[in-house]
Write a structure and sequence with these properties.
four-stranded mixed sheet, 45% helix, elongated
Amino acid sequence: MRKDTGVDGNAQRIGQMVWMLFLKIFDDRESEAELVQDKYKSPIPEELRWRNWAADPEGMTGDTLLEFVDRQLFPTLKEISLTTKPSRANIVRGVFEDAYQYMKSGTLFGEGVKTRIKEKLLTECDLHTIVRMPNGVFAPYTGIKTNLLFFTKGRPTKDVWFYEHPYPPGAKSYNKTKPLNIKEFDAEKAWWGVAKGKIGEPNLKKRVENEFAWKVSATDIAANGYNLDIKNPHNADTGPGDPDELLIEFSKVNAEAATVLEQLKQELASALGGAE
């Protein structure tokens, strides 16, 4: 399981899998129903059935797939008609109404929406600084990284300054007993600079790049699809991490996913058993 930016731990990654597993299992059950029921009719529109878009190894990928899920699959299935096979239709509709709540927060395939929001931010505001906080700032509640965005409304962005906040010496993460300390921001304060006569406005002209700070033009960001997850160019790529730790993490996530899948199979079999 890769660690996608903005995905809050293993529980959220598993949550993303549920609706896909549901459609796959639902399709398998429908295949069984079609064998024993001559006039079986699926409550799911033909083009949205798993077999017709996900089962094809040469099927949709990338932006085409994202557009399909965002604009067609979810809007249709969360409001599916209940006139045909009401029990099955109710099951499908309930699953996608719940899953859509995740989608609204951008945790499923909401990249198209997020891209438009970031484009609007850079064209209508001056996003002059992004402070990238490390993992664990909000531990134990979440371990994801946090970005602090500083912008001024009313003018477009020319350049974005990034500042990667480091852990204090000797620390590898934050936790409940050793949280982030306000004094750690002294380095940012010294680097920030203040424009004369403009309260809160940074003096961008006096900023310089260092091991923690770098600048990226808005033109380059736009050319890269408005992706703001830009790594520090002054840090060497340390790779994906320690192999032993990755194996432990993978085993843990795999076991959790297997448990969720088994529970989903049992619940779906029970629900569909009464919907024949």
